[in-house]
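Sequence in, structure out.
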Amino acid sequence: QVRLVESGGGLVQAGGSLRLSCAASGNVFRINAMGWYRQAPEKTRELVAAITSGGTLTYADSVKGRFTISRDNPKNTVYLQMNSLRPEDTAVYYCNARDQYSDLDYWGQGTQVTVSS
């Protein structure tokens, strides 16, 4: 099992910045890709950004140029630096880790990000 604990959400004005962190513990050797998803009210959960253990990056088109994902492998932690935030970025953000042996997804508890206009 892998446990993911997120931190760093909150309320910010449009144009502001936030940094999310997600620390993994447990059987971390099973993890390959880590990433962030978000879910706004009455919308489906969507990928925001992901990074593999080798450093390959993926971003949603809506956040390219504004958000940066990074990973500290020795600390088993992934970060999401969010700049130039917009009201449409408001959502619950979930940390995700993919099990490289079973393709099972692990999820954090979610952290609320609210961007006021």
